[in-house]
Amino acid sequence: MIHLILALLPLVIVLACLLILKFSALKTGIITFTILAILVLINTPYQITFYKVVESSVNGILISSIAAYVIFFGVLLFHLMNESGKIQDISTQIKLLTNDQVLQVIILVVCISPLIESTSGFGTAFLVITPILMSLEINHYKAACIGILSLLAVPWGGFSYRYCYWD
């Protein structure tokens, strides 16, 4: 029973900090990490040494920094496109191609999203495609759902090879 409680403790701490105490994600992460690191170092059934906690923490920071590095430039790409008006320009060009909203969505999801995803990765295509969908006057909820669907393996796998290895 103690193993189940210890296994659920991180989830309970995160949910309590985010939903009940309304802490930010950063503050929640720091609190959760601190509580669990102390708990693990106390005599628990897991018998983890201080060295292993430090090693795992450094490993987690390094892996997270790689993802944060890529996501940062994806967010930067979105802001550059938004401030320069390119999102509206892309939306206008797609409207000039066709008035059919279904075809507009297909163009974005099957062609443009894999291009952006293959060049930047980590879901940054969602950051670019969703505002374009909203500027095409698609409901915000539907635009978010379509943006997530654009990250599926089918369009990405079918077209990203051509974008990455074009001869």
Automatic annotation (TrEMBL):
Its main location: membrane. The keyword Chaperone does not apply. Uptake of L-lactate across the membrane. Can also transport D-lactate and glycolate. InterPro entries: Lactate_perm. It is a multi-pass membrane protein. This is L-lactate permease. It comes from Staphylococcus massiliensis S46. It is found in: Cell membrane. Belongs to the lactate permease family. One of its GO terms (molecular function) is lactate transmembrane transporter activity. GO terms for cellular component: plasma membrane. Keywords: Cell membrane, Membrane, Transmembrane, Transmembrane helix, Transport. The chain crosses the membrane at residues 6-23, 30-48, 60-81, 102-129, 141-161.
